[in-house]
Structures are given as C-alpha cells and as structure tokens.
Amino acid sequence: MFTTVGNRGTMHLGLCLRVLILAALTVPIRAAQPAQETFTLTVPDGPTSTLSGSSVSLLCQVSPLFNVEPLEVRWYRSSNFHSLALLYKYHKIQEAPVDPQYSGRVSLTGGMERGNVSLTLERVTLEDKGEYVCQVTSKQWYEKASVFLTVNVTGSEPVLSVAEARGGGGQVNVTCSSAGWSPQPKLIWTNKEGTEIRNGQEVLNTSDPQGLVSVSSWLLYAPSYSDWLACTVSLSEEVKRESRILPLIYTAPTAVPGVYKEAYILILVLLVLSPVIICALCSVILWKRRGSMWSSSRKSRNSSDQTELGQRPTETKNLIEGAENTVKTLTRQRAAGKGGNLKAETNNSIEGAETTVKTPTEYIAFDWHQVKGFKG
C-alpha cells in the first residue's frame, strides 16, 4: 500500500518539475521573438546636406532596438535596386555586386549590435546627390526607408559691372554674376546699410550638364556720392560669397553730377595727352644727350689738335737745323770746286719741311732765308 502511494507521489512530482522547466525555457523566447519578427526603420525627416569633398552619414535606425548583425542590410539608389551602394550579408560587407562608384568609400559605422545601420559615405562628389534607400531584411520580415542627400558646391566670387542705363536719368545698370553652385543659390542686393534692395532687379538661373547652377542679376540703381552696393550669393548663412562695388567709379560723365563729372573729364584729357607729353620728354632727353656727345667730341678734337700743334715747333726746329747743315755742306763743296746748284737743293729741302709741318688748318710759315749760311 505504501509502495503504491509512493509511486503516485513520485509521478506527480516529476510532472510538476517538467512543467516548471518548460515554462522557464518558453517565457524568454516568447518575450524576445516579437523584436525579431517585426520592426520599423527611423530616418531623418528632411534632406541631409554636406559639402563636396567631405564625409557624410545617412542615418537609419532599427526600432525597437536589437542586434541586427545576423540580418541583411542594403543601401541603394532609389532609381535602381540592383545598383548597390552597400550590401551587408552573412555578417560582413560584400564586395559585389556593389556599384564601383562607391567602392572603398562606404561603411556601416553606427553600431549594428545596437540596431544602427547608418551609411557613412566619404569623399562626396556632386554625382552622389539624390535619394538613397535603407533596407533591412530578416527571415520573417523586411523594412525600408528613404534618405535624401544634397551636395553643396560653393560657386565663384560674384563679378560686378556697371553701365549707363538706357534713357539716362541718372540711373546705372549694375550686373552681378556667379557660376558653379549646387543646389540653386539665393542672390540678394544690399546697400551700405545692409538693407536688401528688392525693386528694379531681375534674376536668371541656368544649369550646365553637370548640374551646376549659374546665377545672374541686373539692378537699376540711382547712385549717390558715397553709396556702394553688395551682391551676395549663398546656399546658407555659412556657405556664401559677396562682392561690392561703388557705381560712381564706373559711370559715364553724363551720369556723374558736379565735381565727379569735371574730374572724369580731367582724367580723360590727361589720358589723351599723355602720349604727346611722353614723346616730347623723350625728344628733349635725346636732344640733350646728342648735344653732350657732340660737345665731348669737339673737345676731344681740339685737344688732339693742340697736342699736335705743340709738337710742330720741335719738328720745324729739327728741319731747320737739317737745312742749315745741308747748306753748310753744299757751301764747302762749292769752295772745293765741286759746283752744284746750292739754291735748288736747298729749296727742295725746304719744300719737304713745309709739307711735313702742315697743320689741319694752315701751313706754318717757313722762310728758308733764315737758314744760316744760305745765299740766294
């Protein structure tokens, strides 16, 4: 009897233990199962903006939070499901079939164990702008959401120019132009007080094949003596370019009142006459230089003549002494009976002397009668 009762108690106790073990194993699984079966994705409401050449994160978060490492994550352009920017599968990022445009530039850096599947894109270019789709897939469920990326490109410095307006009336036509912007920028005119000018302006935007925008604007303006204008082209308060101009500097004489008109005419006259003045100065300088050279040459010639004239008396004296010696020799020969024409030979010697001592301007007077011992 006791044996029967003991067996029944043992059976009831074993059954209770089995129920408790099953309950303990079943409750945690049922609590965790809904997070893996269904989920949603959280993305930014508006577009994500970045500058060309920088890095950007396209945010995408799984809700409720759980570890998504065992799941599949796809990032792709909305226009083409098969053109993948990134594919995460089998616990790693796949090399193919990713678009080569994104090779080496994308990663998942949010922390997948916390349910963050945000895409980080480096070295952003203008071609990267557009809509991206974040898709997370499990064995039972998948969800996707879109993130729009805008790439800001800062354009060139605005170029300003001024021309007289048609019909005159003291107004000028001020032009502002800038190119190479993305997306379409905002252009405003302001005066020196910083007040925006809205009247009398027109704005034109054009795009090139690369999607970059050029902006131009024209403004009719009546300048005063000290007013300047500013043209500002901007994408935001942080991304903008500005140029300024003083219209009075560039306007025609008819559009400039008072002293500015007279100053403009004076400058114009000086510009016209400056070539004539320069030519006259060059002529004076050349004339003075030539006169100086001629004077130096004349002094050199006079010095040479004076030197030569200083040497002539010595030469003449030597010739006279030679002639005297010749006369003495001829006289002795005559006395010895070797006759000869003493006067003729002496004349020949003197003519040679006269030829030798000839100066550049005249012949030195030479009297052969001064030769000692000569008798005609």
Write the layout of secondary structure elements.
Layout (H helix, E strand, L loop, with lengths): L1 H36 L2 E3 L5 E4 L4 E3 L2 E3 L8 E6 L6 E6 L2 E2 L12 E3 L10 E3 L8 E8 L4 E11 L6 E6 L7 E10 L4 E5 L5 E2 L3 E7 L5 E9 L7 E6 L5 E6 L12 H78 L6 H15 L20
Parallel strand pairs: 2-11
Antiparallel strand pairs: 1-4, 3-9, 5-6, 5-10, 6-7, 8-9, 10-11, 12-13, 13-17, 14-15, 14-18, 16-17, 18-19
Look at the structure and give the mean pLDDT: 75
Read across the widest sheet, the strand sequence of neighbours is: 2-11-10-5-6-7
**What is the CATH homologous superfamily assignment of the largest domain?**
Immunoglobulins
How large is the count of helical segments? 3
Shape: elongated
Strands, total number: 19
CA radius of gyration: 57 Å
Q: Low-confidence parts lasting 5 or more residues at pLDDT below 50?
A: 1-9, 25-35, 249-261, 356-366
How is the biggest beta sheet arranged?
6 strands, mixed
What name does the CATH topology of the largest domain carry? Immunoglobulin-like
GO cellular component, one term: external side of plasma membrane
Protein name: Butyrophilin subfamily 3 member A2-like isoform X5
Keywords: Disulfide bond, Glycoprotein, Immunoglobulin domain, Membrane, Signal, Transmembrane, Transmembrane helix
Subcellular location: Membrane
Quick description:
This protein is an alpha+beta fold. It contains 3 helices and 19 strands.
Would you mind describing this structure in some detail?
With 376 residues, this protein is of the alpha+beta class. It has four domains: 40-152, Immunoglobulins (Immunoglobulin-like), CATH 2.60.40.10; 159-251, Immunoglobulin-like; 256-285; 312-370, no CATH class. It is 34% helix and 27% strand. It is built from three helices and 19 strands. It has helices at residues 2-37, 258-335, 342-356; strands spanning 40-42, 48-51, 56-58, 61-63, 72-77, 84-89, 92-93, 106-108, 119-121, 130-137, 142-152, 159-164, 172-181, 186-190, 196-197, 201-207, 213-221, 229-234, 240-245. The strands form five sheets. The protein has a six-stranded mixed beta sheet with strand order 2-11-10-5-6-7, with no helix packed on it. A four-stranded antiparallel beta sheet has the order 12-13-17-16, with no helix packed on it. Helix 2 (258-335) packs antiparallel against helix 3. The chain is elongated, with a radius of gyration of 57 Å. The model is unreliable at 1-9, 25-35, 249-261 and 356-366 (pLDDT under 50). The chain crosses the membrane at residues 263-287. It holds the Pfam family C2-set_3. Keywords: Disulfide bond, Glycoprotein, Immunoglobulin domain, Membrane, Signal, Transmembrane, Transmembrane helix.
